[in-house]
């Protein structure tokens, strides 16, 4: 988690393609309170693979080997 100024937030929005790809969304964290996070929209998850390891690179490597 990072605290950023308006210029950095605008740069992060461009990097994450907010709101076209990821969406910056308020969430609540224990012991911290409300923060904003970039989340992948739930409606775009249909048909996407579940990556059990959580590691995209490992998933791609395993897929290549199959």
From TrEMBL:
<dbReference type="InterPro" id="IPR036568">
    <property type="entry name" value="GGCT-like_sf"/>
</dbReference>
<dbReference type="InterPro" id="IPR009288">
    <property type="entry name" value="AIG2-like_dom"/>
</dbReference>
<dbReference type="InterPro" id="IPR013024">
    <property type="entry name" value="GGCT-like"/>
</dbReference>
<dbReference type="Pfam" id="PF06094">
    <property type="entry name" value="GGACT"/>
</dbReference>
<feature type="domain" description="Gamma-glutamylcyclotransferase AIG2-like">
    <location>
        <begin position="1"/>
        <end position="58"/>
    </location>
</feature>
<protein>
    <recommendedName>
        <fullName>Gamma-glutamylcyclotransferase AIG2-like domain-containing protein</fullName>
    </recommendedName>
</protein>
